[in-house]
Design goal:
Keywords: Aminotransferase, DNA-binding, Pyridoxal phosphate, Transcription, Transcription regulation, Transferase. With 479 residues, this protein is of the alpha/beta class. It has helices spanning 3-16, 29-36, 40-52, 94-108, 125-138, 153-165, 180-192, 207-215, 233-242, 264-276, 334-345, 350-362, 365-390, 416-424, 456-478; strands at 56-59, 63-66, 176-179, 198-203, 219-226, 230-231, 247-250, 281-284, 309-314, 325-329, 396-397, 405-409, 431-432, 445-449. The strands form 3 sheets. It has an 8-stranded mixed sheet, sandwiched between helices. It starts with a helix and ends with a helix.
Length: 479
């Protein structure tokens, strides 16, 4: 390899690693010559090669700049999308898939239909930041002992008060503050099961729950789940009768991705069944505040008489995503969860806890929630109508009762990973159904996020998404 080719490869690698970003000016020819100890002629050859590769561009009287990354297919003059997306690996790495989607949204401004997170613009993050800044000024330093589990007493009191106001009797002494709901779920799972144990989950289920089971060396058994009524209790009873189930993990309220609210009588039946066999159930209730109805839904905790419900929630989906404040109410496993919290992460930072507690005590959380619920309900109806309008015949959607995600069943021949690749090539993200099962059971499903503002851009993106589905369906018919 010639010297200028080596230099070109070195600079291109730096660009791909993000050392130099799109639109950024790089070193002049003379500066690069000095930095790399090569001749000016070598640098000129290297820069010319990088221009031919589409990595750099020259601007008269200004120098060399990193070129904006073309969308897939653009550099070859293709339309992108379906034709270039057919070669997809049979194995799907869910963690990498989620991370890739989030990076695409952040780095390239892709339409965030595939995001697992809500749009934070309606959240009162500026107000909460003001509280945090004021707290930091009042306390130049914190005693680590003040941060120890179970967490800030005032925040715990405010959380217990909200449950009490909504008909859920909670002992503040049961609450353990965590770093988001993810930690609460992981700690709860560690408290009730050990490596090699089997945990029953809904199907489809939120992929973070599958991640937790896999990470702890456990096995998941998927239970059929109705899009309106929730987990099939009869099927779960049969599974319990056939073998040892260490625990169950469910999302009874506004389940991700189906969006249902499990009826109260079925919540009671589920708790009664598990109580009969002394099996703990981890309840992921992160969307509990985002209901579309007039009243906040009940939880499994409402029907728990034996302390077998480990209830997990957070403020990340309804108030502030950046502070990562969650909690667990682990019932009879409370002492074990607190110990695991101390062993795993020691503490949850104090300033975010106190800032959220101050906001809950002094500001209009309920007023904020009413606005967000109304917004999400309107946008869910818009997205459902647009999918019905733009997607081909054979497409069906869920009917969310809360939360911010829509589950879409595509024509059976459409592979959601092919759609994911094709859409991403055109600056649109989706959540392919592969992420919500360990059995590839939902290969022709996608999850869409409707929390972001409905704009001409998002409408055009959804229309294009429908066209891509039609193209993939037609292509599959021909093969």
């Amino acid at each position: 390899m010639k010297l200028y080719e080596q230099l070109a490869d070195e600079i291109e690698a730096a660009v791909r690693r993000g050392v130099f970003t799109a639109g950024e000016r790089i070193a002049s020819v003379r500066q690069a010559s000095q930095q790399h100890g090569v001749s000016i002629k070598t640098v000129l050859h290297a820069y010319a090669l990088l221009e031919s590769r589409g990595i750099l561009e020259t601007r008269p009287q200004s120098g060399y700049f990193v070129r904006a990354k073309p969308r897939s297919g653009e550099a070859r003059g293709e339309r992108g999308g379906v034709a270039g997306a057919m070669a997809v690996a049979s194995e799907v790495d869910v963690s990498r898939l989620v991370l890739s989607t989030l990076r695409s949204i952040r780095a390239h401004g892709a339409v965030p239909f595939g995001s697992p997170y809500p749009d934070t613009e309606p959240f009162p993050w500026r107000r909460i930041n003001q509280y945090a800044n004021a707290i930091a000024r009042r306390h130049a330093s914190w005693n680590l002992i003040d941060d120890l589990p179970p967490g800030n007493p005032e925040l715990i009191r405010q959380i217990a008060r909200r449950y009490a106001e909504n008909g859920v009797p909670v002992d503040p002494g049961e609450i353990v503050i965590t770093v988001g709901a993810t930690e609460a779920i992981n700690l709860s799972l560690q408290a009730v099961a050990k490596p090699g144990d089997t945990v029953a989950v809904e199907s489809p289920t939120f992929y973070a729950m599958l991640h937790a089971i896999e990470r702890l060396g456990m096995r998941a058994i998927e239970v059929p789940t109705h899009p309106a009524d929730g987990i099939d209790i009869d099927a779960l009873a049969q599974i319990i009768g056939e073998g040892k189930i260490a625990a169950c993990m469910v999302m009874p309220n506004f389940q991700n991705p189906l969006g249902f609210q499990m009826p109260d009588e079925r919540k009671r039946r589920l708790v009664d069944l598990l109580s009969m066999h002394d099996i703990p159930v981890i309840e992921n209730d992160v969307y509990h505040e985002l209901h579309f109805g007039d009243a906040r839904p009940s939880t499994l905790k409402n029907f728990d008489t034996k302390g077998l419900v480990l209830h997990c929630a957070s403020f990340s989906k309804s108030l502030t995503a950046s502070y990562r404040i969650g909690w667990a109410m682990p019932g009879r496993y409370r002492a074990q969860v607190e110990k695991l919290k101390f062993l795993n992460t020691l503490t949850t930072p104090s300033v975010p806890q106190v800032a959220v507690a101050d906001y809950l005590r002094q500001d209009g959380y309920d007023r904020h929630l009413r606005r967000v619920r109304k917004l999400y309900k309107q946008q869910s109806r818009i997205m459902m109508a647009m999918v019905e309008r733009f997607f081909p015949a054979g497409t069906r959607t869920s009917a969310p009762q809360g939360g911010y995600v829509l589950w879409v069943e595509l024509p059976e021949r459409v592979d959601s990973m092919l759609l994911y690749r094709a859409a991403l090539a055109e600056g649109i993200t989706v959540g392919p159904g592969y992420m919500f099962s360990t059995r590839n059971a939902f290969s022709h499903f996608i999850r869409l996020n409707y929390s972001y503002p409905w704009t001409p851009q998002s409408e055009a993106a959804l229309q294009r998404l429908g066209q891509l589905v039609g193209e993939l369906d037609a292509r599959a018919r021909e093969t």
